[in-house]
Amino acid sequence: METREKLKAKIRDVENFPKPGIVFKDITPVLGDAELCKDITSDLAGRYSDKNINAIAGVESRGFLFGLMLACELNIPFVPIRKSGKLPFRTISHSYDLEYGSATMEIHEDAIEPNWNVLIHDDLLATGGTAAAAASLIKALEGRIYGFSFLIDLTFLNGAGLLNKYSSNINSLVKY
What we know:
The protein is of the alpha/beta class and 176 residues long. It has helices at residues 3-10, 28-31, 34-48, 62-74, 129-140, 159-163; strands at residues 12-15, 23-26, 55-59, 78-83, 91-98, 101-108, 117-125, 144-153, 170-175. It has a seven-stranded mixed sheet with strand order 5-6-4-3-7-8-9, sandwiched between helices. The protein has a two-stranded antiparallel ribbon with strand order 1-2. Helix 1 crosses helix 3 and helix 3 crosses helix 4.
């Protein structure tokens, strides 16, 4: 069975979370399968190993999981993008709306070197607001957006449409 099929088989639907009407795609069962996690990391690394990427930016919190493993596999820096107030050093911030509220994301002001090619990784692409906020932060630090990497794309929400203004390189392992 391919990595994509294994991943899709492990993703759990949780209805009415975080609010009524939402079907949450839960990756915690994936995390319980060490071999699958290695396969996912290997698959992602194979996609990006020859792409001249200088850093992986992982979006809090589930984007940290495979984002960090991918950065280690590619031997490049990992940059956390977190919710407001969670990073200990000086930060810049970006506020945005998402599917069920609003949020502010932050990045350390020294996290990205000018002209670095940065791949943004998160577990799931929904409407694209969070990934677009991450891209705005990286661009504010004079980084370039190489592209976006997701485990899951909820294509019916058309999040890729919002991200195309940053990069047309938008990849996911599983699409719903």
